[in-house]
């Protein structure tokens, strides 16, 4: 018996038995780690080579995150955003100019005294000179023994030193570049503050789904709110610390106590490293200022006392546990941004780390990063205040 073609097509094939319908899972591809590594290397290289552009841009974005709540506060009370932005930017400019004018005289005085400070240091620490000279002679003998050649002629080394540009020459050369960066930062800050609401509208519209829109708004508002709260709190604490250290330096007879107060305020924005730098500077100036070495340790003791009280009691109590950071991550961030962008990068290291931590906290796939950056891994992550975020969320229409 023969089957027609249509009947043969209707019969199930024995070679290919029917299978139950099952969902087809997409094949998971391994993460392209080599490409990710190359991208990170290229990104770091671009940030380093183009720091003249990226540094003021990132600094403007950080200031915008801190000051945006202020602009929004006055906007709800009928004041245009551009008016508040102009007032904030002009106030910042006036503070920079006023601070530079106030500090120009004492800093210029210390720069002029640099040669005499070096001679005074050499005289007061003269008892160490003998051992240092012996070490240098031993090093030269070892060099002669290993290479068979003598050291470089003293005149050549002195000639190199004399040909190096002085500090004032470096400052005069870099002043136009610094002014251009400050101008770029302030102009960009004005636009970011004046059009901050537009940024959130564009952010909402660019997200594909409703859940992504809510998450993006929550992350943006959390970073803005927490970073603003953190920097305003730390600025207040550091200002009080500067007043305390400046008063202490005035009591013990240190020159320029106002300069010491401002210096302590600025350096304390750099955790761990800033206090060490201040203590070292106070040791040097104390040795030059006071007649005996025992009295020279009064300034570093004053500096150490106030910074220890601030770091161990005041800041943990005021800032709270919500924004506690892993000390290892903080130190590595300071070292990395300091290497990348110098002294200004060290100031920006902790705020950038706070923003990264808040971003990672709101992304489930980055939970390990948030856990590493957190100060206490056993502490549960606090949920953001949804009511506050919804109340300040802009309309996407």
From TrEMBL:
Residues 1-28, 375-397 are annotated as: Disordered. It is a multi-pass membrane protein. The chain crosses the membrane at residues 38-67, 79-103, 178-201, 230-252, 258-289, 301-319, 331-356. Its main location: membrane. Pfam families: AI-2E_transport (PF01594). It is found in: Membrane. Keywords: Membrane, Transmembrane, Transmembrane helix. Belongs to the autoinducer-2 exporter (AI-2E) (TC 2.A.86) family. This is PurR-regulated permease PerM. It comes from Rhodopseudomonas julia.
